[in-house]
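Running this now, will post back.
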Amino acid sequence: MDHGAPELSALEPWVYEPLLALALREDIGSGDLTTEALISPEARLEGVFVAKGSGRIAGLEVAAHVFRRLDPGVRTEPLVQDGADVDAGTPLMRVRGRGRALLSGERVALNLLMRLSGIATATRDVVRLVQDLPVKIADTRKTMPLLRALDKYAVRVGGGVNHRFGLYDAVLIKDNHIAAVGSIREAVRRARRRAGYLIPIEVEIERLEDVEEALEAGVTAILLDNMPLPMLREAVRIVNRRAITEASGGITPQNVRAVAETGVDVISLGWLTHSVRAMDISFELE
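Update: finished.
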């Protein structure tokens, strides 16, 4: 069990505070009927988040902010850090404050903490499978709507890297784009004219004969989509470091190492965020 944490880029509260407000409004609505009937406004309680299974923790501060939105006087005490690998039974964070805030915020806090920890755990496990190879494990835009910043943060906690955050920070020319304009060369030309020379341009290809056209067009990266391993290996050979190579499509923990051994620079996996298995965590009053 490792209670240390990797170096992480900050996840600032302004990124997720609007989301927390919406989530609490959705859950509490006009009022928590059960808690308001049973718990007096003055009652103070203390609870602790506990891991019910093993995994990598992500989202403790997000969970803490859920309670603070309901009671600014809530005090939290992290017992581990984001990035910690924990075993079942490990206490994660202690929370003290008004009882109504703790009980009304419990579900939203747990939902987020369990989801983010599940993403971080899955990412960690894949990264470990290829950790001795010069390849990076990346996410995609297949995130839960409105949760992208949080989902991608969890990927970083797991040791992965982030692909583009949205349609605004990089150009990714896909097969439908190419079909619409007629060729890779024309698609790249139009994209470069619009985006300028500081924005990276990546092209998705499915055939080996398209690799040279993409390289001649001056792309930053080539996404090798759903290629069998021999074709993937040949595409990497043709590129010969003239662009970043990214493999995507149909990649699982079972075949990720074989894909990495083809020599690609990046492997992107949508299932890291779109098929999340939440980590089992509970919140227990003391």
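Residues 1-7 have pLDDT under 50 and may be disordered. More later if anyone needs it.
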